[in-house]
Amino acid sequence: MSTAVSKFPYLRQDFAASLVVFLVALPLCVGVAVASGVPAELGLVTGIVGGIVTGLMPGSSLQVSGPAAGLTVLVFAAVDTYGLPALGVIVLATGLLQLAMGALRLGRWFRAISLSVVEGMLAGIGLVLIAGQLYAAAGLEAPASGVDKLLGLPGAAVDVVGSTEALASLAVGAGTVLVMVLWRRMPGPAGAVPGALAAVLLATAITLAFGVPVATVEVQGLFDAIQPPGADAFGGLASIGLLGTIVAFTLIASAESLFSAAAVDRLHDGPRTQYNKELMAQGAGNTVCGVLGALPMTAVIVRSSANVQAGARTKASRVLHGVWLLLFAALLPSALALIPLPALAGILVHAGWKLIPFRGLVGLWRGHRGEALILVVTAVSIVVVNMFEGVLIGLALSIVKTAWEASQSKLEVIDKGAGPIQVYLSGNATFLRLPKILDTLEALPQDRPLVLDLSGVHHLDHACHTALTNWAERHSTPGTEPVRVTQGTTPAPQEEDAPLRTG
């Protein structure tokens, strides 16, 4: 016993934390799988791989990986478009790309992605997830697109009011959300039970005790659910759409995992995340999930924070949580068939709500309205268009905003009434500021000599250089001294005055 303690000094803390993470992960793994349109067991498979395979690898010691609500919308669309066999190919390719990016040391570059884009992406996913799961909670079929999901809610509400079964199903889903919200206030040992697990257990017990007519999880069996992609599935790689889906999976899963790692690092004082190694760990896990035909994985902040708060000290806790998931899937798979689907929908509605940064958006609007606008536009674009294009729109806006802010220039005109008009240009003169610069310069009188001082310019791009040269050549009227351009505190020699020189 003493030998085991010396080798694993934190075994007791990690063992206790692993049980907590297992209880948090179990309903989420099943719920994400059902919402993604795949067998419930595949969610457990991804959780098992995330715990045992990714958990054993270096990178982030306390971060926990598994199927994520943030990828639910993307997975559902991929399965709906290309079929379940193609999911394994997509996840396998995602894993291999992540391994390659980690080997090329690109992990830290994901930290350069605008936080507003990532939060907007998660908010958009949350909106679509909530809308879709409201239909599932009522036992109704949800429309395909995000916009149709939102616009169809009033009609769905009318259908629910006219159906006793739909009302009963919705009541189970609403009750699940209510229990999750209130459970954290439970005193004593009961409060230590994860709210999602308590909500599912209560919903299951009530539906069984009172014979509530609700749909339950369909069970296939662990080994029947695992369907490795066949040779035919790889033929889809010739499709541009499938390749675009792979890129979307890779970028979103990697960004979410590495942003989660940064958040988890702030929760503990242990070893910091090694981002390139963590990206390779995620890649290894997704590669295995792809071979098994399971869901994609990311690091998940809910499970990770539960791991830290439960007192975990090493990676042993996340590995053990994968072992408990494996034992449950192997020994108690029939228990899944008792879980009501509206209860799982309620869990995902709650998860989707937490993806939307309501408080953060208010603070962002007060201090950084440009960033708040990027967040909102990204979220709306995901709802209106789709996930991949919505993220691209957000990234494009972020780049344009950064370029605009980097193009800060100041144009000052000093006219003392006699002698040349002095024009001072400073800062970064780029094409983004060119219209304002030219408007000011072209409004100056043409019958007066001008001196354009560029000594304060840090950067002058080609567009501004050309425009200023053309302005200087055409500005003066015949008989007026040409525009003089200076690079320092003294005017340039006369022979260098006519052409604009930026050297």
From TrEMBL:
<keyword id="KW-0812">Transmembrane</keyword>
<feature type="transmembrane region" description="Helical">
    <location>
        <begin position="234"/>
        <end position="253"/>
    </location>
</feature>
<dbReference type="Pfam" id="PF00916">
    <property type="entry name" value="Sulfate_transp"/>
</dbReference>
<dbReference type="InterPro" id="IPR001902">
    <property type="entry name" value="SLC26A/SulP_fam"/>
</dbReference>
<feature type="domain" description="SLC26A/SulP transporter">
    <location>
        <begin position="11"/>
        <end position="378"/>
    </location>
</feature>
<dbReference type="GO" id="GO:0016020">
    <property type="term" value="C:membrane"/>
</dbReference>
<dbReference type="InterPro" id="IPR011547">
    <property type="entry name" value="SLC26A/SulP_dom"/>
</dbReference>
<feature type="transmembrane region" description="Helical">
    <location>
        <begin position="373"/>
        <end position="400"/>
    </location>
</feature>
<feature type="transmembrane region" description="Helical">
    <location>
        <begin position="323"/>
        <end position="353"/>
    </location>
</feature>
<feature type="transmembrane region" description="Helical">
    <location>
        <begin position="116"/>
        <end position="140"/>
    </location>
</feature>
<keyword id="KW-0472">Membrane</keyword>
<protein>
    <submittedName>
        <fullName>Sulfate transporter</fullName>
    </submittedName>
</protein>
<dbReference type="InterPro" id="IPR036513">
    <property type="entry name" value="STAS_dom_sf"/>
</dbReference>
<feature type="transmembrane region" description="Helical">
    <location>
        <begin position="160"/>
        <end position="183"/>
    </location>
</feature>
<feature type="transmembrane region" description="Helical">
    <location>
        <begin position="15"/>
        <end position="35"/>
    </location>
</feature>
<feature type="transmembrane region" description="Helical">
    <location>
        <begin position="82"/>
        <end position="104"/>
    </location>
</feature>
<feature type="transmembrane region" description="Helical">
    <location>
        <begin position="195"/>
        <end position="214"/>
    </location>
</feature>
<feature type="region of interest" description="Disordered">
    <location>
        <begin position="472"/>
        <end position="503"/>
    </location>
</feature>
<dbReference type="GO" id="GO:0055085">
    <property type="term" value="P:transmembrane transport"/>
</dbReference>
<keyword id="KW-1133">Transmembrane helix</keyword>
<feature type="transmembrane region" description="Helical">
    <location>
        <begin position="42"/>
        <end position="62"/>
    </location>
</feature>
